[in-house]
């Protein structure tokens, strides 16, 4: 595929049936679906200098394939999503595993049989494990709230340990909140896995990593005769919205617009900025074959960073004598700073503010916000793909 940097002087919006803002999952999926299904001529406008959104990966100076915006672990329960994405990549058989560094001991997360033995010792850990099996059965996830609801001191002991050593301090670092500010519904979902399966997504039927990387997946998805990709283009420079129409380059645009960026930024934050958490990522290349035993180690009770990712452990890349790791530091997002908004802070006030922005575009019938930023939601890759496929089907139905 060919990418144009910047808009050419003769760029004519009316030459396109659809303009897509953003070349991440939401935008690329919609572009491909409409191009190949109804023959739409599609212009994809991307603010960054690359496609693939936050899934973008590249080879660093050491030759290690790294994820620029943090680790992306593919997993899904959706056969529809998996079949669509599998058209553009082969998959490795990678199964994601996470360890928590608890006072120097590495324990599987979610907390499981092995974690119990490490935390409580062989004898006591086995007693607690058998109590969990007797109460809930085997190979099931049990939120710690359910452990407490049983009013059993043994189960409460497990719940308290997991809450204190796996969840609490890690969550405070991740979200910048004190324990009393953490939504109880979040705490309630923290699971214990009653079993020995130490995969992070033990029940997801489709897992792996794109064999040639995520960027290659997006190159294949956007490689279509009806799709033109323009990077280094900020849609805010050429878009104007009123109550019922969208203008592009000064003229009312009659085609479909798929918008995947932040809605508040499209309106210059005039109602206030939607809050996010962002991440600072510190990459380091080491002269060793392997730094840690799994792709991700969470530092749940120590360190300023939340986790360390080692990319070769996830991609399966063979590169003797070199490995690249990445530490993540979470903090509040500052609009206009050049930071990346990663995690929407989904409290009632913020949802209400988002709703006010959304109301402004509800009556623009050819303007379609979709994706993590435009919908102000936390989406895994498969969920944003599903959302984009659903929107694509709606647009296709209107043009059938």
Task: Characterise the protein shown here.
The protein contains twelve helices and 22 strands. The longest helix has 23 residues, at 153-175. α1 runs parallel beside α12 (381-398) and α3 runs antiparallel to α4. Strands 8-7-18-19-20-17-21 form a seven-stranded mixed sheet. With 400 residues, the chain is of the alpha/beta class. Helices cover 32% and strands 23% of the residues. The radius of gyration is 23 Å and the shape is globular. The mean pLDDT is 94. The chain folds into three domains: 3-91 and 210-271 and 340-398, NAD(P)-binding Rossmann-like Domain (Rossmann fold, 3-Layer(aba) Sandwich); 98-194, no CATH class; 276-332, no CATH class.
- Compute the CA-based radius of gyration: 23 Å
Query: What is the count of β-strands?
Result: 22
Please, what is the average pLDDT? 94
CATH superfamily of the largest domain: NAD(P)-binding Rossmann-like Domain
The number of helical runs is: 12
For the largest beta-sheet, the strand count, sense and barrel status come to: 7 strands, mixed
Shape: globular
Strand content: 15-25%
CATH class of the largest domain: Alpha Beta
Largest sheet, spatial ordering of strands = 8-7-18-19-20-17-21
Protein name: UDP-galactopyranose mutase
Family: Belongs to the UDP-galactopyranose/dTDP-fucopyranose mutase family.
Domain UDP-galactopyranose mutase C-terminal: 166-378
InterPro entries: UDP-GALP_mutase, UDP-GalPyranose_mutase_C
């Amino acid at each position: 595929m060919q990418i144009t940097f910047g808009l050419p002087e003769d760029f004519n919006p009316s030459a396109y049936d659809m303009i897509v803002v953003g070349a991440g999952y939401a935008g690329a999926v919609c572009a491909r679906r409409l191009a190949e299904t109804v023959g739409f001529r599609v212009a994809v406008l991307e603010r960054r200098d690359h496609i693939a959104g936050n899934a973008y990966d590249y080879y660093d100076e050491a030759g290690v394939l790294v994820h620029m915006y943090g680790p992306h672990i593919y997993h899904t329960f959706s056969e529809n999503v998996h079949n669509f994405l599998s058209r553009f990549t082969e998959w490795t058989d990678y199964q994601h595993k996470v360890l928590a560094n608890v006072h120097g001991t590495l324990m599987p997360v979610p907390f499981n049989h092995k974690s119990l033995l490490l935390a409580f010792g062989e004898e006591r850990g086995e007693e607690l494990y058998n109590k969990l099996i007797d109460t809930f059965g085997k190979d099931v996830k049990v939120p710690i709230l359910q452990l407490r609801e049983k009013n059993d001191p043994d189960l409460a002991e497990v719940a308290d340990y997991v809450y204190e050593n796996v969840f609490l301090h890690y969550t405070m670092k991740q979200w910048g909140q004190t324990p009393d500010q953490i939504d109880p519904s979040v705490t309630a979902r923290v699971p214990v896995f009653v079993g020995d399966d130490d995969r992070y997504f033990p029940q997801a039927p489709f897992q792996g990593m794109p064999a040639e990387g995520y960027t290659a997946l997006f190159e294949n998805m956007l490689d279509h005769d009806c799709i033109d990709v323009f990077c280094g283009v900020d849609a805010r420079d050429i878009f104007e919205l009123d109550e019922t129409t969208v203008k592009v380059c000064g003229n009312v645009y009659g085609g479909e617009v798929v918008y995947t960026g932040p809605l508040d930024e499209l309106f210059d934050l005039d109602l206030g900025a939607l809050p996010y958490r962002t991440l600072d990522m510190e990459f380091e290349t080491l002269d060793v074959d392997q730094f840690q035993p799994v792709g991700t180690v969470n530092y749940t009770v120590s360190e300023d960073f939340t986790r360390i990712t080692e990319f070769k452990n996830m991609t399966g890349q063979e590169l003797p004598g070199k490995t690249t790791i990445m530490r993540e530091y979470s903090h509040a997002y500052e609009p206009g700073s050049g930071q990346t908004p990663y995690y929407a802070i989904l409290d009632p006030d913020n949802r209400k503010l988002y709703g006010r922005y959304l109301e402004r575009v509800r009556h623009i019938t050819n303007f379609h916000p979709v994706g993590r930023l435009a919908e102000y939601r936390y989406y895994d890759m498969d969920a944003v793909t599903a959302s984009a496929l659903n929107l694509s089907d709606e647009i296709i139905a209107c043009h059938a």
